Structure formats: structure tokens, C-alpha cells
Amino acid sequence: MKFEKTYFYEFNAKFKEIFDDVEVAAKSEKPSELKSMDITNIRFLRSSIKQVKEKEKDGKNPWS
User: Fold this and answer.
1) What is the pTM (predicted TM-score) of this model?
2) Closest CA to 38 of 12, 4, 7
3) In a domain, 61, yes or no
């Protein structure tokens, strides 16, 4: 029997970019070529564990 654990986190990050043109910088909505990125806060939200259904050697699922 195998189990899968999924983690949920919330991150706050600070991104820095260098632009050659102020208009391009103003229109940019998300970082593309980063100069730097700092994670400023990490918060654990929750986790969940569920059983992973394993296939038998013949490729059939034993639960179906």
C-alpha cells in the first residue's frame, strides 16, 4: 500500500527586474527575466494524505 501527501503553502515574494525602457516596465504585469527574487514569507496552510491505488502486474486496477 502506498500513500501520497500533498502540501499547501502560501508564499509572498519580491521580484526585481531591469528594464531599458520605462514604458515597457510600466506595462509589465509579471516578471520574465529576473534580476532577483526573495521569498519574504512562507506560511503552511494544510496537508492531506490519500491512498494511492496501485495497479497489479497485469496492468489492471485491483479496486475496480
Assistant:
1) 0.53
2) 12
3) no
